[in-house]
Amino acid sequence: MKKQWQLQEAKNKLSEVIKNAINEGPQIITLRGKETVVLLSISEYRKLSKPKRDIVEFFQDSPLRGIDLDLERSKDIAREVEF
């Protein structure tokens, strides 16, 4: 249940800290009263460190890929606007 541990307590109860990280989410370890380290499960770590797709991959995976778009600009003269 605990989410924050003092370093000495975390060392003494390491298996409990690990179990909590797996079952309940990241566990914070403090050193001299300051939050210093976060212990998280490997699945949480992998979610955070998963490489992001670049823009080319994004467009390649688009459901609109292959649709013929008309990208030609109109050659009409712009309308006159009064200021």
Name the helix and strand elements from N-terminus to C-terminus, one letter apiece. Answer: EHHEEHH
Write down the CATH topology of the domain at 4-60.
YefM-like fold
Query: Helix coverage percent of residues?
Result: 25-40%
Determine the oligomeric state from the structure.
Answer: single chain
Q: Largest beta sheet, briefly?
A: 3 strands, mixed
Q: Strand share of the residues?
A: 15-25%
Inertia-based shape: elongated
Structural class: alpha+beta
* CATH architecture label name of the domain at 4-60: 3-Layer(aba) Sandwich
Q: Report the count of strand segments.
A: 3
Rg, nearest Å: 27 Å
End-to-end Cα distance: 67 Å
Unreliable stretches covering 5 or more consecutive residues: none
Q: What's the level 1 CATH class of the domain at 4-60?
A: Alpha Beta
Task: Tell me the name of the CATH homologous superfamily of the domain at 4-60.
Answer: YefM-like domain
Could you report the average pLDDT, rounded to the nearest whole number? Answer: 90
What is the spatial order of strands in the main beta sheet? Answer: 1-2-3
Helix count equals 4
